[in-house]
Structure formats: C-alpha cells, structure tokens
Amino acid sequence: MDCRTSSEIMIKQMDGPLAEADMQGWQQHLSACTKCRKEAAEWQQLSVMLARLPDLDPSPGFERRVMAAIDPMRYAVRQPQHAMNLGMLFIWIGIVGGASLLVVEAAARMQQWMMTWFQGTALYRLLAFVYEFVVIRGIFYFLMPQKGLWDWLTRWETVDSWWVTMGTLNLVMVLVLIKVILDRILAGGRGEVR
Amino acid sequence: MQLTDAQLVTKILRGDPTGFQELVSRYQKPVFGICYRMMRQREEAEDLSQEVFIKAYRYLGQYNHEHKFSSWILKIATNTCIDAIRKKRVDTLPLDEEIKTNQEDVSAERAFLQEEAHREIEAAIGSLPPDYRIVVLLYHHQGQSYQQIADQLEIPMSMVKNRLFRARKMLKESLKKLKEETLWTAEQVQKS
C-alpha cells in the first residue's frame, strides 16, 4: 500500500469501520510509515472531536417564547358557538316561516270564501296592513340596521358556517314567498300585483 | 406512554397545539445547534431557531409522515440558516462566546483540555465556508446519512461526499494550524 491509498483509507475510516482487507493492509503500512502514522493520529483526533461536539442549549424560556409566537387556533376546528346559535336561530325561523307559509297558502286557497265573507271589512284591511308594514318592512327597515344583527349576517365567521348560510337562504326564500302570497291576497285574487 | 413525533403532529393537526410544545422541547437543541454554529451569534441563532419552529408549525400540514420529523425540521433549519447567511453574507466569524460543556464529572485538568478541544474544533468548523460547514454539522453532529443530507440540501449525493471530503481536510489542516499556533504561543510565554 502506498501513502496515497493510506490517506484515502484514513478518510474512509471516518464513515465507519473498515473492511477486514483494507484494515490489514493499512495497519501494515502504518507500522512502516511514520508520516502516515502521524497523519492517522490527526484524523483520529478530528474524528473524536467531531463525535464529541457538545449539544447546545438555547436560553431559558425558549419553548415559552415559541409557543407565544404561534397561532394556537391555526388548526382548531372552526365552529364558533355564536355562529352555531345563530345558525340554529335561522333554521328555526325557516321552519316557523315555512309553517306560516303553509297557513298563508291555505288562506289564499280559501280566497273566494274570504272575499265574500271577509274582504272589505275593516279588520281585513287592518290585518293586511299590519302584516306587510310591521312584519315585512319592519324586518328590512328596522331590525336589519340594528347593531348586532347586521354584523351577525355580514361577519365572515357567520357566513363561514354552512348552517348560517343555509339558514339565511331559507329566511330570504321564506320572506320572498310570503311577500308574493301577500301581494296575491291584497290583489283580491284577480292576479294583479300591487 | 410517550407519543411519537408523528402522533404529536396528528394531535396538533386535530386542533391541540400543546403537542407542539413537546416537539419544540425535543428538537430545540439540534435546531439551535445548527443555527448557532451556522450564524456564530447567539441572539441571531435564537431568533432563527424561533423562526424555524414557527415555519414548522405553519406548514405542519405539509409534513410527510413517511419521512422522519427530525429530518424535516433540520431541513427547515438548514434552509433558514442558508437564506439568512445569503442575506447577511455571514461567513467565518468566531463564535460570540465560548461553548460551555458539562464538567461535573471530570477533573479540572481534564475539563480544561476538553474545553480547549471543543474551542479548537468549534473554531475550525467556524472557519469552513457555510456550504461545507452545514454538511459537517449534519453528518457528524446530527448523524444524517449522505442521502438524507442530499435530500435536505437538494444537491446530488456525489456533491455531499465531495463537500464532506474537502471539509474534513480543511478541518484537519485548521486543527494542525491551531495546534502549531498554540505551541508557538506557549514557547513565547516560556521565553518571556
């Protein structure tokens, strides 16, 4: 073995134990070559020093600082309680609205009877007025701009919840249908729309 | 029973961030070790280590469970340090403080020699170019394989081997030089 091959083996040795064949030839060369023996000792020293590199600690409180810097809600399940409550409210409004719709529809089908018996009375006019102005317009002109309700309806968390989205669509659909049927009733069953 | 890294990741992704504290606790030393030895300044190394963990948390959903978490976080640490070095052009500054080692179980003389050896090897590692330094740290200190280092640095394995080969030679020369300087200084002190 020459000194060049011996040098290569020294470096190879840093990756793990040498093969038996390499080891024997190398040991023989080392016993005869002072220069390579000295070099081998230097490699050995480097190998030991690298293996003994100490672990380093960050300053105390490092964990706490990292935890304070992360967003703990990043992977939290997004379903805020208020959105759930609001969603349920809209579902119930939808159910009640739907039931009301059936009642109003039934009333519309009894229109002929209503016309002969009820239309023209002051009570009929008063009820129609109250229904349209207080319920329908009241919702759009009075309740909606009130602080809180408008925020609820436009806030992302609210829209984000499909419960609320479906509930809102349900509410809008019910209101539109009620208005249409109401118009039919107020038009006196003649197909005219006021 | 202690949860594995993969189980902790799953726990965090299901909405429990406390699992992340355990991961920070497990990997703060290797991450800080890489950052400190690459940046050579404690304060900056701490900032970068913090950045590494924040990035890891942010992109935890992208972690592939087929690979070791340790390799993944060390890859983030490596890339973060290399980016910081490129921005700052940090090269071969000395460490800003001496690295203290546990000396409870060794005699004063042995402790001094060990301290001296650590100081020498740290200085030698610090004198390597950053591309070589990271390879030495990942291979010799973090126990990564050639293939893992190649994956982390996104370079061919032959390049990893080449850099490590050159780095080791440079380290040996640096240590030799340091020893000669120390001997020369000792001789001067004796003469005066």
UniProtKB/TrEMBL annotation, chain A:
Name recorded for this polypeptide: Zinc-finger domain-containing protein
Protein source organism: Anoxynatronum buryatiense
Top-rank taxon, per record: Bacteria
InterPro entries named in the record: Anti_sigma_zinc_sf (IPR041916)
Chain ranges passing through the membrane: 89-110, 122-142, 162-182
UniProt lineage: Bacteria, Bacillati, Bacillota, Clostridia, Eubacteriales
Keywords, comma-separated and alphabetical: Membrane, Transmembrane, Transmembrane helix
Automatic annotation (TrEMBL), chain B:
Pfam family, one: Sigma70_r4_2
Gene3D superfamilies: 1.10.1740.10, Winged helix-like DNA-binding domain superfamily/Winged helix DNA-binding domain
GO BP, sorted A to Z: DNA-templated transcription initiation
GO molecular function, one term: DNA binding
RNA polymerase sigma factor 70 region 4 type domain ranges (all copies): 119-171
RNA polymerase sigma-70 region domain sequence ranges: 23-89
This protein's UniProt keywords: Sigma factor, Transcription, Transcription regulation
Family: Belongs to the sigma-70 factor family. ECF subfamily.
Protein name, as recorded: RNA polymerase sigma-70 factor, ECF subfamily
Organism: Anoxynatronum buryatiense
